[in-house]
Amino acid sequence: MKLSPKQVIELHGFNNLTKSLSFNMYDICFTKTKEERNAYLSYIDEQYNADRLTTILSHVTEIIGANILNIAKQDYVPQGASVTILISEGPVAEKPIEAFEESPGPIPGSVIAQLDKSHITVHTYPESHPDEGISTFRADVDVSTCGEISPLKALNYLIHSFETDVMTIDYRVRGFTRDITGHKLFIDHEINSIQNYIPDEIQELYHMIDVNVYQENIFHTKCKLKKFDLDNYLFGFKKEKLPLKEQLLIEEKLKLEMDEIFYGKNIID
Predict the structure, then answer these.
(1) Distances from the Cα of 247 to the Cα of 82, 200, 231, angstroms
(2) Whole-model pTM?
(3) Catalytic residue among 88, 123, 129, 193
(4) Are 90 and 112 in contact (CB under 8 A)?
(5) Candidate list 29, 59, 128, 146, residue with the active-site label
(6) Which CATH superfamily is domain 18-263 in?
(7) Is 146 marked active-site?
(8) Residues 158, 122: contact at Cβ < 8 Å?
(9) Residues 10-49 pLDDT 10s
């Protein structure tokens, strides 16, 4: 059964579809010394500590129209943080058209829809290469909802909340719900690509690849920043302090790191 973006379906009971969004972002940096590397990791830990991440996820909760039931958060030693928010159904007066539109969501705003038995989590993973000077910060955000609205409406806000060189985004609809005749629905909204939920001005900044399995309601998009300015990847110093040969060597290492993350494989073993 193919659905039009604005089609309203009368269901038998609650919407039992589970819609899961996984947003993985990577920030890459070069540090020349151990002290600079430790300073970068400390900066990341402060920039994306559990309190800041809780604020981001709370805004995501507002965007998808949910109520917060419980928050669990933790800063780890030596680095990293986690936050888990349990959310429940929000009040609904009338289901908004935005819930079915394949378009970018607010940054942030409020979309009201029915949700139940849902959760939002984030985990951070700062790490560094043992001897190459490369440091990589990764954050994984998962938004899982059972209800009418797609968590993809929170994607635009998430992209704006993190400094991102590479993104991998997965979206999947699982289970089924029934209409009033008992007919099973394995998806309740039209979707062709995750890219349709990313604003044009953001898309212009990234190289993008889609890998979608439409018959299984599985959608995957990965993105790599197009523009490369070495100064944006140096922590604690500027490229003008480096000889040109060293600049080119560092740039090669950084681009290799980004390519390997983007393609999900080691290019040079």
Answers:
(1) 35, 32, 10
(2) 0.81
(3) 123
(4) yes
(5) 146
(6) S-adenosylmethionine decarboxylase (3.60.90.10)
(7) yes
(8) no
(9) 544 556 788 899 999 999 999 988 888 889 988 999 999 9
